[in-house]
Structures are given as structure tokens and as C-alpha cells.
Amino acid sequence: MNESSVRAVGWARSLPMDRGVKAARDWAREHLDALGWTTSAPETVDAVLLTVSELVTNAHTHAHSDAQLIMTLDDHCLHLAVHDASTDLPAPRRPSTESAGGRGMLLVDALADAWETHPCPHGKTVVACFRVPGADEPEQ
């Protein structure tokens, strides 16, 4: 019998619409700093923080709801999940020169190693994954 174990740690934060995106970024930065990533992997930190900004902004602006931000870390990836109350699933769309918006999911797509959406009975969760700096590729 081949036993494998998953080692993971996680953090969660509810972000009411009046708390703003800055509170989400500051909270995420604290945890990334505690992991030592702000020194050892500043590019990854920047990508994670911009993704936090985009996903929480989407929850507040498009879903008109609070956001639940969850970060979990395993041996291979930092999983960044944002849940909101809308059942409308996000998708990258072609940006327009006539609109200031519409680039958020394109940014997430460019920044994260992978992302996906999970519909839920009371909304959806968008999960973006970032490889742990220096970690081996997970086996397929």
C-alpha cells in the first residue's frame, strides 16, 4: 500500500465590500512575508498580490458581494481562492479601448500558473495557483 501525505497550511479572511482591496493585499502580503517570499521570490509576490487585487475587485464590483479570500500552501503551489455571491462565471475577454475594465481575468491568466472557477450553490469560487518558488514540478 502506497501512502502519500499532503502537507498544507492555510489562511482565510472575509472582506466586506467596505474593507476594500488594499486590506486584502495587505493581509496577503503579511502571509507571503512570513513565508519569506517577499525576499526570496518578489516576482511571485507581485503576481499573487495583483491577482488578489483583481479577484477581490471582481467580487466587490461585478458580484456586488463580500469576498472570502483563502490562501492555502502545499508542497507545490500556493492556492489563492476568492469566493463571492454571484453565479456568473468569469472569463477572459478582449479588452476594449473604449472601456477601462475588462482586463482583470486576462491579468490573472497571465500571472497565475493556472486558474479555474468552481460554481457553488451560493455563488462561485475562483482559484488561482502559483508554483512554490524552488519547488519541483508536481507529478502528473
State the assembly state of the protein chains: single chain
Quick one: biggest sheet?
Answer: 5 strands, antiparallel
Estimate what percentage of residues fall within beta strands.
25-35%
Query: So how many helices?
Result: 4
Helix/strand order? EHHHEEHEE
What is Rg? Answer: 15 Å
CATH topology: Heat Shock Protein 90
From the helix content, strand content and strand pairing, which structural class follows?
A: alpha+beta
Domains (count): 1
Q: What is the straight-line distance between the termini?
A: 20 Å
Q: What is the highest CATH level, the class?
A: Alpha Beta
- Form type: globular
Order of adjacent strands in the largest pleated sheet: 1-2-3-5-4
Helical percentage = 25-40%
- Mean pLDDT equals 87
CATH architecture classification: 2-Layer Sandwich
In CATH, the homologous superfamily goes by the name Histidine kinase-like ATPase, C-terminal domain
Number of strands: 5
* Low-pLDDT regions: none
